[in-house]
Structures are given as C-alpha cells and as structure tokens.
Specification:
Oligomer: single chain
Helix content: 10-25%
Distance between the termini: 22 Å
Number of strands: 7
Number of helices: 2
Structural class: alpha/beta
Strand content: 25-35%
Number of domains: 1
Radius of gyration: 15 Å
Largest sheet: 7 strands, mixed
Strand order of the largest sheet: 1-3-2-4-5-6-7
C-alpha cells in the first residue's frame, strides 16, 4: 500500500472548512479500510473522532504556528490497546505507511496547498505517542514537497 491511488481516496470537508481556508485550526483525520484499501480523509476544525475505530490506526494532523512559522504536526497512537510487542509492530507499520498517508493528505487537500504554496516547505513533525519510552518519539519528517504526488491537480 505504498503507492497512492487517487481513485481510492475519499475526502470530506466539515463545517467551517473550505478547500482553501483556514490554516490554523485545520485538522486532518486519515483512516483506511483494510478490506478495500480505501483511504478516508476528513478535514475539519476538530479531529473526526466519529471516524476512528478501536484499532486506532488513524493518522491525525494539524497546522500550528511556532515562532511565526507554520508547522504540520502528525499524531500517531503507537500503543493502541496493546502490549509492548504489538506496539513495536504498530510502530513499524506506521513508519512504513506514513509516506503514503502524507501523500494522501497532500493530494486530498491539494487546492489548499495551491492557495498556500509556502506550506509545502513547512516542517512535518511526527509525534509517535507511546507509554513505552523507546517508542515515544518526536521526529522531523521533512516537508510536503517530498510527498507531492505526480497526479495532475
């Protein structure tokens, strides 16, 4: 599942969000179906908790401003409802699939990025959230320029 298929990406804009505004308070919830490989991107003023299931393998993201610069923060629940061995496996899967998730977010919200091209160069900070210290990490995953798809906008 490492190649983005735009026909398998479904995008929903919730109340208070347009295809181009706002930047701050713009939150993303990316979920998927293991059966169909469909990706579901919900963009709203809040995370789409109603779209999240007990597997807790969603990718949550939001724009924030730090010292006058925009930053895209990603939050991943590495532990889920599991033990350390399963959490380590989930961490491995998140790391393998995150580039696809970032491509899906970038492509699914492409009109927003076209309206705010400077955001393509904003840092992507990933918060691997875990109760296990070796899995609880914050990392810089580059910028959205690295996750731009080859599809026509």
């Amino acid at each position: 599942m490492s190649i983005l298929n735009p026909d398998k990406l479904y995008v929903e804009f919730r109340e208070g969000i347009t295809a181009t505004e706002p930047i701050i308070h713009r939150r993303y919830t990316l979920t998927h179906s293991d059966i169909t490989a469909d990706l579901f991107l919900t963009i709203g003023l809040r995370f789409a908790w109603d779209k999240i299931n007990s597997m807790r393998d969603e990718v949550l993201g939001e724009w924030t401003k730090n010292r006058g610069c925009y930053v895209y923060n990603v939050y991943l629940d590495v532990d889920g409802q599991s033990n350390q061995t399963v959490a380590a496996k989930r961490n491995e899967i998140f790391r393998r699939e995150l580039p696809l998730a970032l491509k899906a977010i970038r492509y699914g919200d492409r009109r927003f990025f076209m309206s705010h091209p400077e955001l393509n160069n904003s840092p992507i900070i990933v918060h691997f959230q875990s109760r296990y210290p070796q899995l609880n990490k914050i990392e810089n995953w580059g910028t959205f320029t690295e996750y731009n798809s080859d599809f026509n906008d």
